[in-house]
Amino acid sequence: MKNLFCLISLLFLIFSCTQKEQKNVLTLWHVGSEEEAQIIKSLADKYFTPQAGISVMCESISWSEAHTKYLTAIAGEVLPDLGTMGLTWAAEFGHKGAMVELSERFPNDVKLLKENIFSSIWNSSEIKGKVYGIPFDLTVQLIYYRKDIISKSPQTWQELEEVLKDLNKQNKKMMIVWGSLDWIGFSPFLWQAGGDYYNKEGTKSIINSKQAQVALKFFSDLYNKYNVPRSAENFGAGFRSGEFPIGMCGNWLINSFPYEMPELEGKWSIALLPKGPSGKRTSFIGGRVIGIFKTSKNIDKAFEFIKFLSKPEIQKELYIEVAKTKNVYLPPNINIWKELPIKEEFRKVLFEQIKEAKGPPAVLGWDDSTKYVVEAIQNVVVGGKPVEEELKKCEEKLNQHIVK
Amino acid sequence: MNNNKKRCNYKKLFNNTLLYIFLCLGFLIMVFPFFWMLISSIKPREELLSYPPKFYTLRPTFEYYKQLFTLVPMYRYLFNSLVVAITVTLTNLLLSSMAGYAFAKHKFYGNKLLFTIILGSMMVPWQVNIIPSFIIVKKLGWLNSFYGLIIPAMVNAFGIFLMRQIISTIPDELIDAAHIDGCSEFYIFWKIILPLSKSGLATLAIFTFMSQWNNFVWPLIIIHKSDMRTVPLSLAVLNSQFGNNFGLLMAGSTVAIVPMLLAFVFLQRYFVKGIVFTGLKE
Amino acid sequence: MKIRKFKKQLISYLFILPAFLILTIFVFIPVIASFFLSFTEYDGISPPKLVGFKNYINILFNDKLFWKAVFNTIYYVIFTVPLGIACSLVVAMALFQKIKFSTFFRTGFFLPTVTSVAAISVVWRWIYAGDRYGLLNYVLTKLGILAVLQDWLMQPSTTLPAIILMSIWGGIGYNTIILLAGLQSIPDSVFEAAKIDGATSWERFWYIILPMLKPVMIFLVIMSTINSFQVFEQVYIMASTTEYFGGVLYSALTIVPYLYERAFKRFMLGYASALAYLLFAIIFVITLIYMKISKFYEQ
Fold this sequence. Notes:
Number of helices of chain C: 13
Number of strands of chain C: 2
CATH topology of chain C: MetI-like fold
Distance between the termini of chain A: 65 Å
CATH class of chain C: Mainly Alpha
Oligomer: heterotrimer
Largest sheet of chain A: 9 strands, mixed
Number of helices of chain A: 17
Radius of gyration of chain A: 23 Å
Number of strands of chain A: 11
Low-confidence stretches of chain C: none
């Protein structure tokens, strides 16, 4: 028992070896994996620090708890200079006054950046002319399909239905991996049908439209008529065995599938989403943005770093380095796409789909409203409730939550 | 008579067999998910996605373990976690049993009230205390340090409650006798109470060590520097946004379990007693 | 005489002091702070704004999700606490026998408790997955018990039971250890006396062991109740995605995941605190009832 005290005092001694704060450093919190954070850090060491004279510290934060970490850091005012975050978070934090409004402080640079970034992703990060975060990467919803089972990927909703009927006869199915039973999975169908969540000005919800009804009906049919499973676990295994020879999923599998199913080399591909009644193939696009916190003492240098990360050659290196880890980084900068070392058939599909895609609506209050959209979708698909009624309720809620 | 005894033996054998079958079945159910984790951590990448699921692998790989220790300074994180878990466990043992003893065996003004307050504090979900606690620790200047990880956890209501209950099973007569012999309170605590509540202390040690080892949200919030990370924090960032590195995550989780298992095996030797199983009158 | 009594009391306070000091700074003050926050509107950035009982009134009268969460939480507690303790008691009694490989068995039963929920939930998601790919479906159809494949975590009727099953599984090791510790402290003489009296093992269990375990059992019941009312990780990890939480149509939404979502996803810290104190009130009343029934302070 005496040893107990010795041990305690010894352990307390160890504590005294904590380090001093470094001064000339930009800190960046990166929402993502440790591997990515290390890649960003090494790129910064190699190209940014020698020229800007300031080093960059990059800390990774896991996705699941990132929102919590940012909130406590904001409340306690212990923030990094920079942070990457979910597409809509920057506007959310910015609206509350925690982030630097980039469009106000660096109007010319922001305009320049805007010209080079896919408008589909930019539109979601600019709300009423205010920009708090610059797109850092993107993720787009695609069709994955087995060429040896489905000869040609479906081009329209009708073709999709025919393919699914055929597959169902052979006891095979489609899977909606990204956004099963939630608004992310539903949005492409809504847009392809010609509907939308809000009007162009973002002042009023228009979710209770004829087009939205058609979309939700079709989305519900996918599950209830064509047996799309509700849970999206095991897409990889099912895709490999051929039981799920077609799936809607984000682009993140394109670099890992070749390693996980080497025997399928050449037997699978990606494709554009099918055209809806409106003739559009609109997909859902998401991603991360990078922004600067107001508490930063190095705002100018921090913005230099954002510009650095937006350079085409840096984004190309990011793609290459991340691909080595079997993951995918897609650059938001249009100009570098031709040079990416990526399979030609993939590049074509990705590029086209990113151009024809939409992100979350750029309306303040959207984050509070998603749950009503999800409720409507689940009430229809799982609960069997009538489409019109649910959309009507949803529209009322969406209108209530628009922040004027 | 002889016949009767024989029957007894058969019945005993039967009961024993039942007991072992029950234990083995239970064991399998409890261990299976862990077993799956272990297998997944040594499967080569192209075997992870197979159907029907494979419960074995013929080509085990240690690639993920290698990656785990080269990608991040895993030794440093293990060290951090160990320092925190061990210190917190030791202080908890001491402080909880002191308080638990007073609450169980002393009559003093405010005993019930103070104890009810402590019990009540457990009923407030910790999630709402995150921000106030964070601000306190920040004011004390303990962010990014062992102080911030350890001192707030040095004692907790659960431990006090557990020790109070364990100590209250010790007969009062023992303590009274010691008082009559003129022993001081501290002597009684150290020489009588602590030795008699060994199994309780072992239990508390296991739980404290475990909860500290697995603690995630608190370190997540107060640690902003990668070299002060604990094991759960580093595991959380191993996986990419879309869970593309399943094997690595499983390898990390497996490594994270080992110290706890060692602690458990070490501490459970304080649970020495057992009864002989019989199913009949003797 | 009085001075001696005072001195005696002083020693008692000295025993409690260190623990109380730490609890005050890191538990009681934050608890009081969040109680204060429950009467405010606070988004973590601009200073809290006093709004009186508005949060409480809104929750009680305008928040359907709260009542759904209360219902689900009670459902969860009613199954998890008694079943969990009953299973643990059986396991503890089995492990308390003089058996071979006892360390081995104990370690096995303790494994689920040791593993972090985050890691093990990956495995459970796979067990519960829909289609033939889920292990549960695979096994149950092979055994011929199940005719129609179920999507356990994605249909409202089975989500919460699936989570309850996983929680019981994860809690057995925890409860068993506490019960074993309690069994350890029963003096040998008690068992021997019972043997001489000629009690059957059932009688011994019911009339001797169980009463001796009373303090530990009370501890277990109170702790499991508190922990089950505050169930968080299981629901948060198993039945939530980035876009919705608490299962399809909130079928597994319980109170703490709900307040966590309010606090850290929506920045409604005042509202979340009010939710926490309503939950506190429920747990407190139930614990008081337990304490009354079990004559807690008269042990």
